[in-house]
Design goal:
Pnp Oxidase, Chain A
Length: about 130
């Protein structure tokens, strides 16, 4: 399995925003969406504030693969769903609160709802053609 380099983790983890594009069934990329990303340890996570019904999140469900761009890093990824009840979600919540603390509470809180928790994805780097 491919892992993030320290440099990639730093660049993506500190980037304000991330562009995410999922693969369609035919292997082409959907239009990228701009979302927030957080780092917890050596892992990167994203959430859909609109839950599992958002367009971009539904697109992820087709192949669970796509492409991201953040902090000058372009990477093909696999999207791994995180169980909403998993303990890591408390750490992800804390990471969102810390990283985006300069935003209004209602904006940050939109990433902490149960709807957003049920739409949490871990980003796992992948090698093309593997």
């Amino acid at each position: 399995m491919t892992t993030w380099t320290s440099d990639e983790l730093t660049k993506i983890g500190t980037a304000e925003e991330l562009e995410i594009a999922s693969l369609r069934g035919d292997g082409t990329l959907r239009k990228p969406r701009t979302i927030w990303v957080v780092r917890v340890g050596d892992d990167l996570y994203v959430r859909s504030v609109n839950g599992r019904d958002s367009d971009w999140f539904r697109g992820v469900q087709t192949r669970h693969e796509g492409h991201i761009h953040a902090g000058g890093v372009d990477k093909d990824v696999t999207f791994v769903e995180v169980d909403a009840d998993h303990a890591i979600n408390d750490q992800i919540d804390a990471a969102y609160r810390t990283k985006y603390r300069r935003y209004a509470a209602n904006i940050i809180n939109s990433t902490l709802t149960s709807k957003a928790r049920f739409a949490t994805l871990k980003l796992v780097p992948r090698s093309v053609g593997v």
